[in-house]
């Protein structure tokens, strides 16, 4: 059974560096930078995300988010990251989520980037860093991703990182308040592009 479970002692506080980026677990003191970036990027993000709760950008909602992240990380369910640039600026977030053990050893990846940082390759590089960590440290065999067909930027991120398109799921996730079709992608260790 030890082969299919993972003790958090192996990576209690993941800190990933590369491509001029730093990825680390979100902390309570990230609230102000996170709320500012999300609010400034609202128009850019809302078409591609679930509906934001009315209190989404408040400190209490952020504290709940941090508690959920910590609980899911401790339970080997997900590894959440905030993405920072060379000057320490918060650029976005990324989560290796829905970790499945046993014979699957797989997870899904989801991500967002603030509008000032789009189109510069930052998210592609963050996905590469996180996926390498997922394979090497979390011991995943497969990482899956889904994106709305019209989200060309997200499709490019996945393709540049080495993900392969595997299917089309009708009304797969409720995004922007309605059930939307998604393209399904997956990455195996040998697919990862550096």
Can you characterise this structure?
By secondary structure, this protein is of the alpha+beta class. The chain has one domain: Aminopeptidase, CATH 3.40.630.30. Helices cover 28% and strands 31% of the residues. It has five helices and eight strands. The chain has helices spanning 31-40, 42-45, 59-74, 122-136, 152-161, and strands at residues 15-18, 21-24, 79-84, 90-100, 106-113, 142-147, 164-175, 178-187. Strands 1-2-3-4-5-6-8-7 form an eight-stranded mixed beta sheet, sandwiched between helices. The longest helix has 16 residues, at 59-74. Mean pLDDT is 93; it is low at 1-11.
Give the tags.
8-stranded mixed β-sheet, 5 helices, about 190 residues, 8 strands, Aminopeptidase, disordered N terminus
Major sheet size, sense and barrel closure:
8 strands, mixed
Question: What is the total domain count?
Answer: 1
What is the β-strand count?
8
Helix count, DSSP H or I runs of 4 or more residues: 5
The CATH superfamily is known as Gcn5-related N-acetyltransferase (GNAT)
Query: What fraction of the residues are assigned to beta strands by DSSP?
Result: 25-35%
Gyration radius, in Å: 16 Å
Helix/strand structural class: alpha+beta
Runs in which pLDDT lies below 50 for 5 or more consecutive residues are 1-11
Could you tell me how far the N terminus lies from the C terminus, measured between alpha carbons in angstroms?
32 Å
Order of helices and strands: EEHHHEEEHEHEE
Helix content: 25-40%
């Amino acid at each position: 059974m030890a082969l299919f479970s993972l003790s958090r002692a192996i990576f209690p506080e993941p800190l990933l560096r590369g491509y001029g980026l730093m990825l680390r677990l979100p902390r309570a003191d990230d609230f102000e930078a996170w709320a500012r970036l999300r609010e400034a990027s609202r128009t850019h993000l809302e078409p591609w995300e679930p509906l934001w709760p009315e209190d989404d950008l408040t400190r209490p909602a952020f504290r709940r988010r941090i508690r959920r992240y910590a609980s899911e990380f401790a339970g080997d369910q997900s590894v959440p990251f905030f993405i920072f640039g060379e000057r320490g600026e918060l650029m976005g977030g990324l989560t290796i989520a829905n970790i499945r053990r046993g014979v699957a050893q797989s997870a899904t990846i989801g991500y967002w980037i603030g509008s000032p940082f789009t189109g510069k390759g930052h998210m592609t590089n963050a996905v590469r860093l996180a996926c390498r960590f997922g394979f090497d440290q979390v011991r995943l065999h497969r990482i899956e991703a889904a994106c709305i067909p019209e989200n060309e930027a997200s499709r490019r991120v996945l393709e540049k990182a080495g993900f392969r398109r595997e299917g089309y799921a009708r009304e797969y996730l409720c995004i922007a308040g309605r059930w939307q079709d998604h393209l399904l992608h997956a990455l195996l260790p040998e697919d990862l592009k550096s």
